[in-house]
Every structure is written in C-alpha cells, then in structure tokens.
Design a protein that fits this description.
alpha+beta; four-stranded antiparallel beta sheet; globular
Length: 212
C-alpha cells in the first residue's frame, strides 16, 4: 500500500484541522553532531495531510533523521525554533481532539514483555474477546512490538476521550497484559508512523500496517 496506505491510515487515526484551527505534529529524532553525536527530538506542525506525508516521505531519505512519530492528538499551538520557523509544540493541555485509543505492546526478552510477536498477538486477541471489546480498527507492527488501535468515526474532545482510554487501561491492568498501560491514557502521545523504520535495531525494522 505504501504512502497511499499511510495517508489513508493517518486520515482516520488522528483528527485533522477544520477551519484552519489546530495542528497535527510530525516528530523526529535527529543525530546532532555538535552535541557529541547524541540524538535530539523535534517536530513540525501540519494542517494538511498531503504536506505531512510529503515531509515524512522526505525525512525517510535524510540520513540524519532516524525515528519518526506522529502526535495522537490535534494540538492547539506551535512554537518558533531558533531559525524563526514554526515547530511542533506537544502538551497535554494543548490537546484539542483525538480519534483513537490504543495499546502499545513491546516484544523483547524479559518477564515484563512478550518474547515474540506471535505470543503478543495471541494474547491481545484473547484479551479483546475475554473483556468483550469490539474488533480492532488497525494493528501496526512497530518493528519492536504492536500498536493496537480502536478508531472513532468522529473526533472526540479530551474529556469525552478520556473515559474510553481510562477504561481500556483498567482492563489491561486487570487482565495482566504486558504493556505500558500508562501510554494508553497519554493524550499527547507520539507513536511511530507506518512506512518508516525503527532504528533501534540493526538493520532497522519496518513499521507496517498488518492485516487483521
């Protein structure tokens, strides 16, 4: 599906601005040669999905840019960077609208994680059935785990969204699902963008939408 599929996914999973109000952020990590080779995280705000996709597509070809994420909420403000250009500003209190709740499951060795994607997938599927949740809207392989989404047809204000997120978190904790349940209720969370790469691994692993 490539970038066309990425655009279709992002058009559903986040609330895009209407009447020119609000911003969807693309966040990235970049190698900073001036700071001992350490990475720093920044971002760019967008109001148009085609410009967002165009930027992310370009960023995947830039050898200095590593990880790429999107902010799960429509944000109300931007800030200005050192060059005088608009930069992404991501704050809990600036969240305007959301369209999804999610589970972020890491797969790696250790008692607090699932050892394989297959084990994580089977557990999450059983969890959904056991607690009576509807079918997932989408599942993305993050390169190091799974991002499981339920997507709303309409944008939700944070006050309306939060009971759903808190309810999902409570179910995850009750059922002992191995994930960072606190991420589920973060209304300014950044999550990896499909069609990009996860550079925590060598070689980097693709971030891709999975078939349900």
């Amino acid at each position: 599906m490539g970038w066309t599929g990425t655009k279709a996914f992002l058009s559903r999973v986040v609330a895009w601005p209407t009447d020119g109000f609000g911003y969807v952020n693309a966040h990235y990590s970049m190698l900073d040669h001036r700071n001992g080779g350490k990475d720093f995280v920044s971002g760019r705000p967008f109001q148009d999905i085609d410009k967002f996709i165009g930027y992310v597509k370009w960023a995947t070809t830039n050898h200095r840019i590593k990880e790429l994420w999107y902010c799960t909420s429509l944000q109300s403000e931007t800030k200005t960077n050192s060059k005088g250009n608009a930069a992404a500003k991501k704050l809990h209190q600036n969240a305007l609208l959301l369209k999804a709740i999610w589970i972020d499951v890491d797969v790696k060795e250790g008692p607090k994680h699932y050892n394989t994607i297959a084990e994580a997938w089977e557990t999450i599927c059983n969890f959904r059935v056991d607690v009576g949740l509807p079918m997932f809207s989408a599942v993305v392989s993050s390169g190091g785990g799974l991002h499981v989404y339920w997507i709303s047809k309409t944008p939700l204000t944070p006050d309306v969204w939060r009971p759903y997120a808190e309810g999902l978190k409570a179910l995850l904790l009750k059922q002992g699902i191995k994930c960072d349940a606190g991420l589920t209720t973060d209304d300014a969370r950044i999550i990896r963008i499909r069609s990009t790469l996860n550079h925590k691994y060598d070689p980097p692993r693709p971030v891709e939408l999975l078939a349900l």
